[in-house]
Design a protein that fits this description.
alpha/beta, Rossmann fold, six-stranded parallel beta sheet
């Protein structure tokens, strides 16, 4: 089987969506499924105002159709709700092809944090976008419940995994910094809620790995924090494994793959009890979730590194790929779905 995944998020971006799709392709290959990608590569693009280092693709319908037909996929999955996602959705509806989607980013919350646009308006747009999909995949049970409460239909669970060969305790390096070391990894942007971590009165050292539009302001307001920039692969794994606690202050992430990466390195998680951390950590003894983030950080220091590693070993990308492919096959076998999407307004 050949699956074409349409995504507006792609390399050189470094985020959970890109990491998930890259891992999906590798794991699906082991299950005799080929994942091809329709990405921004080759399309004209413009800078994104709030993310000057990123660009937004401007795909045309004819070129999108040409790429889809050239790929000759058995199934189509739309990973993002951007311009590419919309064009592929339009193609599928026009040609009455069933497709699946995934809900990976809380755009309504991100938009409302920057612009005076009510979340309800954005959710209405997203609900309409996903309504034609045979399955809309969400990363956690609590996110599925939230989306269902907002009127989303045909929801399915697609969990995430971790590369336990890359991320492991043995990669730890000596950072030569006062301990304990509290570390956070991710895009440095307002939706990640980093000030909630950086403003805490904690012993030892705080480290931030990543880059983004809020970096300059945070460096100015929190000069005692160690900012290491963007790290990937073995360098990221080495720094994660060297930490004592991974701090995840975001209240809006739908999952947070980096939590699993930290746990695979034997590093416990401190976070708020919200969607994402609540589903990844839950009641497992590998992190502390608390509305007082300082309490969570200090409590996480008491957690066993071995327990964190053992938990991460149960979360493979192979299982994640099996879930994804199960939903894709369901879309292909859903004989009722073809007439249903043809009846809906485009």
């Amino acid at each position: 089987m050949r699956v074409l995944v349409a995504t507006d998020a792609w390399h050189p971006q470094v985020n959970g969506v890109v990491r998930t799709l890259t891992a999906l392709a590798a794991s699906a290959r082991k299950q005799n499924v080929e994942i091809a990608f329709l990405t921004p590569e080759g399309f004209a693009s413009v800078p994104i105002p709030t993310y000057p280092t990123l660009r937004c693709a401007l795909p045309g319908p004819r070129e999108v159709a040409r790429r889809i037909e050239q790929a000759r996929p058995d199934a189509i999955h739309i990973a993002t709700e951007g311009p590419i996602g919309h064009m592929v959705r339009r193609y599928c509806r026009k040609h009455r092809r069933p497709f699946t989607t995934s809900y990976t980013t809380r755009f309504p919350e991100y938009v409302s944090a920057r612009l005076p646009i009510p979340e309800a308006w954005s959710y209405a747009v997203l609900r309409r976008f996903h309504s034609a999909a045979a399955v809309t995949m969400a990363a956690t049970p609590s996110l599925m419940a939230e989306l269902a409460a907002r009127g989303f239909k045909n929801l399915g669970l697609w969990t995430r995994g971790v590369d336990t060969e890359l991320f492991r305790l043995e990669r730890a390096i000596d950072l030569d910094l006062p301990r304990p070391i509290f570390i956070s990894v991710g895009r440095i942007a307002v939706e990640k809620n980093l000030p909630a971590f950086l403003s805490l009165d904690l012993p030892g050292t705080k480290i931030v790995i990543g880059e983004g539009p809020q970096e300059r302001d945070l460096r100015r307001h929190f000069p005692n924090v160690k900012y290491l920039g963007l790290l990937e692969g073995s360098a990221l794994a080495a720094h994660l494994a060297a930490a004592d606690v991974f701090v995840f202050p975001s209240r809006t992430d739908t999952f947070g793959v980096v939590q699993l990466e930290a746990l695979a390195c034997g590093v416990p998680v401190a976070a708020f009890p919200v969607t994402g951390p609540r589903d990844v950590i839950g009641k497992n003894p590998v992190g502390v979730l608390h509305e007082d983030l300082r309490t969570a950080c200090l409590g996480a220091l008491q957690i066993s590194k071995q327990a964190c590693r053992a938990f991460a070993l149960t979360r493979s990308w192979e299982n994640s790929a099996r879930e994804f492919l199960g939903h894709v096959r369901r879309a292909l076998s859903d004989t009722f779905h073809g007439p249903r999407i043809a009846q809906q307004n485009s």
